[in-house]
Write a structure and sequence with these properties.
alpha/beta, 7 helices
């Protein structure tokens, strides 16, 4: 076995449970399976943005990330790869998803392989991956794999697409991300930009500002 890799999964679904999280889980399971077939073990960290919604807004308003959000962001930007899944609202990514992207350093995902997923009630929104989400990650200098996976509500039922079934699309995208991960050197186990590296485990800049991080 080669060195293990770490995959961060960001799900922007608003409900619990959500089809966004369901798609994220299918994608991550397929990537882990494909990596294992290549002799690479992988750990998966899943983050539901709905759990950090208030902290994300506070970060946008104050410029400082509360401790829990800072830990999550550090885990995402230091991972070997990212799986990002958002619901489609008004023909584009959700506001929560974009707000999370807005708090990241513009260079934080540079060179990171990304598998993009999206879901909506109708297949009419399937092009949103290529005209809205992919350009967003390209702007951040990330490296989205060629296949993005869109799931309409019908993909989870008996009227699913029989020409390009969801399972086939998931498998193709997963292989692409697994191959991209395998080609890269494992990410450093210690993130030099993580405040816990020099402030102590669980500490953040917010702690230095008299509890702004919301202990």
């Amino acid at each position: 076995m080669t060195a293990s890799r770490r995959i961060a999964v960001v799900s922007a679904g608003l409900s619990n449970p959500s089809s966004t999280r369901l798609l994220a889980d299918r994608l991550s399971a397929a990537v882990v399976r494909d990596l294992r077939e290549q002799g690479i073990e992988a750990e998966v960290d899943v983050f539901e943005l709905r759990d950090y919604a208030h902290d994300i807004m506070n970060n946008l308003l104050t410029g400082f990330a509360p401790a829990a959000l800072e830990t999550m962001v550090n885990a995402v930007v230091s991972a070997d790869a990212l799986i990002a899944v958002t619901p489609i609202f008004s023909t584009s990514y959700s506001g929560l998803f974009k707000s999370f992207i807005d708090i990241l350093d513009p260079d934080a995902l540079s060179g990171t392989p990304v598998l993009i997923g999206a879901n909506a009630g109708t297949a009419r929104h399937s092009l949103a991956i290529d005209y809205a989400i992919r350009p967003l990650f390209t702007y951040l200098h990330a490296e989205p794999v060629p296949t993005g996976v869109f799931a309409a509500s019908s993909d989870w039922g008996g009227s699913a697409d029989q020409v390009a079934p969801l399972g086939n699309r998931v498998d193709r995208a997963a292989r692409e991300l697994a191959d991209a991960i395998a080609r890269r050197e494992p990410a450093a186990s210690e993130d030099p930009f993580d405040p816990s590296t020099y402030l102590g485990e669980g500490r953040s800049f917010g702690h230095l500002l008299g509890g702004l991080a919301g202990e």
